[in-house]
Amino acid sequence: MEPFKHPLKIIQGATFNDVTTWQSGTPPVAVNLTGCTARMQVRAKIADSATLLSLTTENGGIELGGIAGTVAIKISATDTSAITWKGGVYDLEIVFADGTVRRLLSGGVSVSPEVTR
After folding, report:
1. For residue 7, which of 80, 110, 114, 86 has the smallest C-alpha distance?
2. What is the largest CA-CA distance in the chain?
3. Which of 17, 74, 90, 97 is surrounded by the most beta carbons within 10 Å?
4. Helix (H) or strand (E) run with residue 23 in it
5. CA nearest to 12, candidates 116, 112, 115
């Protein structure tokens, strides 16, 4: 299954909080993410070796909502203020307890520069 295309826009200097609910089936029901971890990287281009941003459940940049199926990407205002790049690409992977990995989201990332500092 292809990842959902989900562009992200980060407002430099502001708190970033993007919440998605993963649903599956007919009728759609939330996917249980209990016991899962998640990881996400932003790079200028897919083939680049340098990572611009790395968020995980372990570093607090991603929060999973268990049976609610929510995936929250969180970046503090302090951390968005420190961003020096203008855009890139990302993907977000869910790792299940049995080791199965599912790429859930992918897309472009744009940064709106901060004027007020």
Report:
1. 110
2. 48
3. 90
4. strand 23-24
5. 112
For residue 30, how many other CB atoms are within 10 A of its CB? 16
Q: Which residues contact 55 (CB under 8 A, 6 or more apart)?
A: 39, 40, 41, 61, 62, 73, 74, 75
- Cα distances (Å, whole numbers) of residue 16 to 10, 13, 22, 69, 83: 6, 9, 19, 20, 12
Amino acid present at 112: S
Instruction: Name the pLDDT band for 115 (thresholds 50, 70, 90).
Output: very high
Percent of the chain at pLDDT above 70? 100
CB 79 within 8 A of CB 42: no
Q: CB-hemisphere CA count at 13 Å for 36?
A: 27
Q: Does 73 score more than 80 pLDDT?
A: yes
Residue recorded with tokens 């990302």: 90
pLDDT tens, 15-68?
999 999 999 999 999 999 999 999 999 999 999 999 999 999 999 999 999 999
